[in-house]
Design goal:
This protein is mainly beta. The chain is 3% helix and 36% strand. It has a four-stranded antiparallel β-sheet, with no helix packed on it. Strands 7-8-9-10 form a four-stranded antiparallel β-sheet. A hairpin with a 2-residue loop joins strand 3 and strand 4. The chain is elongated and about 70 Å long. The termini are far apart.
Length: 196
């Protein structure tokens, strides 16, 4: 006769494993985790799109990464200008069942590397703003807001890619967006992590 053992997932450093309560070791134990959902979030295109980071709370799953398609699907939220073929960060929130997109927002001329979420459903994204694409003839479409640490590109910035931090509100609109350093073409920086 089978008995249910209530296993849970456990995070140990970067590894996911199973945590088990006390059980009868003389009997075989079968762990059969269920796949809740698996989905694509990009259009059917021959383009470069990829997920860089993912996090979740009780309201949904938050995903960030990069796309260079000009037709990345967006729902609700504020869809900002795509980089016309240059890389763009996407920030997408999917409901906990994986059945629909709550919002999807594009941050042009950038690559998203990391995402975190707070208790108020605000998403914080960090990555790389592609200043060098503007010098290659692409419009610089990354949204910079006023009153932040670094909200504009100096006229003598030169070709560089620099780290950024962006906060999205619960509906996917940009609350603030800033570059993280002044520009030094000999020392471009990226921001590949974020902690709440």
């Amino acid at each position: 006769r089978q008995s249910i053992v209530n296993a849970t997932y456990a995070l140990r450093g970067d590894d996911v494993s199973f945590a088990l309560p006390s059980y009868d070791h003389s009997r075989s134990l079968v762990i059969d985790p269920a796949l809740i959902f698996s989905t694509f979030i990009t259009t059917n295109c021959q383009c470069g799109s990829g997920v860089a980071d993912i996090t979740a709370d009780s309201t949904g799953v938050y995903i960030t990464g990069m796309t260079n398609t000009t037709s990345f699907p967006a729902r609700l939220g504020t869809t900002l200008t795509l980089g016309n073929g240059s890389p763009s960060t996407f920030v997408t929130k999917i409901d906990p069942t994986g059945t629909h997109v709550i919002y999807s927002t594009i941050l042009g001329t950038s690559i998203g590397y990391a995402i975190a979420v707070d208790a108020f459903e605000n998403a914080y994204v960090s990555g790389l703003a592609m200043i060098d694409y503007a010098d290659a003839g692409y419009p610089f479409a990354f949204p910079l807001t006023s009153g932040v640490f670094s909200g504009s590109i100096p006229a003598n910035a030169g070709p560089a890619s620099v780290g950024y931090a962006t906060k999205l509100g619960a509906t996917g609109t940009v609350s603030y967006s800033t570059l993280l350093q002044q520009y030094d073409v000999n020392n471009p920086a990226s921001n590949s992590g974020i902690v709440m």
